[in-house]
Amino acid sequence: MLRILALALTLAALTPVQAATAYEELAAAIRAGDSERVRTLLAAGTSAEATDRPDQAAPLLIAVSRGHQAIAERLLARGAPPNPRLASYYNATALMIAVNNRYRPLAEMLLRHGAEVNAVDSFGDPALNWATFYGDLPLVDLLLAHGARTDLVGHGDAVQVAMRRGHQPVLKRLLAQRGTLHTPDAATQALLSALDADDPAALRAALAAGARANGSDETGRPLLARAAREGRLQAVVALLEAGAAVDAPDPIGFTPLMEACREGHLAVAQALRAKGARVDRAALPSGLAMTPLHLAVAGERPALIRWLAAQGAPLDARDSEGAPPLAWAQGDERKALAELLLELGAQPLPPKT
């Protein structure tokens, strides 16, 4: 008890300059991955808790961002709160940073130590939405196992994020969690099996046996959109010939053409366009009002960008946040794509103030 009291008095006596120096020493040791130095500093009384200065990241955030699990564990054992936030990065929690960097063991450790699984960032997105964005099914499973909610809305909810990104396995897992994963009828299941096997003859046989060209897969999205997303050109042609609606939207307003543009399937996009697919159509707000050109930029598909421009796609269409495709290219530091859009006639963006 006397030893603990003496340590408390020592810490209380630290001047602001001394506290800042102690923090910098600890932060430097964490960045270097020097676990022994971290242990020594903590044993000498340096605080493992979050700094109260907004320009300084909490020690735990530094350890998590660098992937130093043993150091993070040591900090937590010395009293570091498990939910520090990084104000300069969307007010993200340590758990979000672990997810962002795909450090699953670190995420698991943080959850064991009480990290709040349903905390949200400055946009309202929880860690589950971050994992869904990357299509990381093991991380999604981990978060769901710890009580992650699928209905928290930031840039859409987790299901909508999975649809926008085209992450089919993650989407199926999320819908199963909600209890809304569909069970297709026998004819549709035969068609889906033919589609998965890339067997046009079997697909046509399934259509002849009663499968509906305008039917939906187990996720509730059009069969044509699935064929387009997977680049199954012959299946796309067969479905269109059987009467599939060329611009049939999914629940967030994405069309088969949008799916093809995001995934880079130029021949599929051309087949859809030949049947009247619109290049100027925008998704629903839950799909961020994205157009085929936004999705071609998001998917880094220069050939699709050139083709869409030649087809008359609006170069300066705005998404739900007012951003044209050029903003997506510049915001994600895709310099070559930004230059391509400007070359094709996109309006330059005003300089940032």
Structural account:
With 353 residues, the chain is an all-alpha fold. The chain folds into 2 domains: 17-169, Ankyrin repeat-containing domain (Serine Threonine Protein Phosphatase 5, Tetratricopeptide repeat); 219-344, Ankyrin repeat-containing domain (Serine Threonine Protein Phosphatase 5, Tetratricopeptide repeat), CATH 1.25.40.20. The protein is 54% helix and 1% strand. The protein has a two-stranded antiparallel ribbon with strand order 1-2. Helix 3 packs parallel to helix 5 and helix 16 (256-263) packs parallel to helix 18 (292-298). Residues 1-19 have low confidence and may be disordered.
Structure at a glance:
ANK repeats lie at residues 90-122, 123-155, 219-251, 252-284, 288-320. The protein has 353 residues and is mainly alpha-helical.
Poorly predicted ranges (pLDDT <50, ≥5 residues)? 1-19
In CATH, the homologous superfamily of the largest domain goes by the name Ankyrin repeat-containing domain
Give the fraction of residues assigned to helices.
Answer: 40-55%
What global shape is seen?
globular
Briefly, what CATH class of the largest domain? Mainly Alpha
User: What integer is the average pLDDT?
Assistant: 90
The CATH topology of the largest domain is: Serine Threonine Protein Phosphatase 5, Tetratricopeptide repeat
Number of strands: 2
- Please summarize the sheet with the most strands: 2 strands, antiparallel
Please trace the helix and strand order, writing H or E for each element: HHHHHEEHHHHHHHHHHHHHHHH
What is the terminal-to-terminal distance? 56 Å
Note the total helix count.
21
Global structural class: mainly alpha
- Order of adjacent strands in the largest pleated sheet: 1-2
